Recover the amino acids of this structure.
């Protein structure tokens, strides 16, 4: 992560309120996506992605393409 990026706890505090419009960098968006994925893999039911993630993905074609690429790859951890 670059020095300009906020830590995970800062991002969680910033994005916990759906009424605030947090502007994320691409790096920050993926930090939150990885966090949500970890929660999901541990059985936590998430109603939806952080609004800040959805907002960033709606504006950033680079990140959308990366997500699409990830979704197309087979899961190599499953046997």
């Amino acid at each position: 992560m670059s020095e300009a990026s906020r830590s995970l706890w800062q991002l969680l505090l910033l994005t916990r309120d759906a009424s605030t419009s947090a502007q994320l960098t691409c790096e920050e968006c993926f930090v939150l996506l990885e966090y949500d994925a970890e929660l999901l893999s541990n059985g936590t039911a998430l109603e939806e992605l952080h609004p800040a993630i959805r907002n960033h993905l709606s504006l950033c074609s680079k990140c959308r393409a990366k997500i699409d690429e990830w979704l197309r790859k087979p899961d190599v951890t499953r046997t």
